[in-house]
Specification:
This protein has ten helices and no strands. By secondary structure, it is mainly alpha-helical.
């Protein structure tokens, strides 16, 4: 009973924030080689700044979503407040992936060519154009090891269905996101001393 444009845009909006952050953040060190080699600063600022810039774009695009909610006369409930923790988890995940990818891109320049393909495959593995109900029950746990799946389904549940997100799927997304962030940050800091020489 949910209009498809609203159904899809509810997931497209946070996904665009994620994919844009990756597209701009992963090559950020190589693209700003003058800053990396000549200016003494915490170099993680560069990839993290792209996440912040994408978040600003996300905020502006959210105005379109608000307009769609008004157009389709969707009644928002208190469950819409779940958007804040969902977005927080997504920022943790996005920052971790960007830090890891940007550090590895300094070592292996071909990574920037793999990112668009990997992002597209990741999109099809996430419930953006289809509902989670299409995934067989026996495969759901494996499916939700994709942290974006739990997050995108959480946005839909909280906003469109006035339901509390699936806490098991959300908890799994949170754990994986934290692991990705810690791994990305540690990898970044371990490789950081060699950035100037490699770039």
């Amino acid at each position: 009973g949910i209009p498809y444009p609203l159904f899809s845009y509810t997931a497209v909006l946070p996904w665009t924030f994620f994919s844009t952050s990756l597209a701009m953040g992963i090559p950020s060190l190589v693209n700003n080689m003058n800053l990396v080699t000549k200016v003494r600063m915490p170099r993680e600022i560069l990839p993290m700044a792209t996440v912040l810039a994408s978040l600003v774009d996300f905020s502006i695009a959210s105005l379109v979503f608000v307009g769609m909610v008004l157009f389709y006369r969707v009644n928002l409930h208190w469950t819409a407040l779940w958007v804040l923790p969902l977005l927080g988890i997504q920022i943790i995940l996005t920052t971790g992936v960007v830090l890891l990818g940007s550090a590895l891109n300094v070592l292996y320049r071909d990574i920037r060519f793999v990112v668009p393909l990997a992002t597209q495959l990741w999109m099809y593995a996430s419930p953006i154009i289809y509902p989670v109900d299409l995934i067989p029950e026996r495969l759901r746990l494996f499916y939700f090891t994709n942290p974006m799946a739990g997050l995108l389904e959480g946005y839909r549940a909280a906003i469109l269905r006035a339901e509390t997100p699936d806490l098991a799927a959300l908890g799994l997304s949170l754990v994986i996101s934290i692991v990705v962030l810690v791994t990305g940050y540690r990898t970044f800091k371990r490789l950081e001393p060699s950035f100037a020489d490699l770039i």
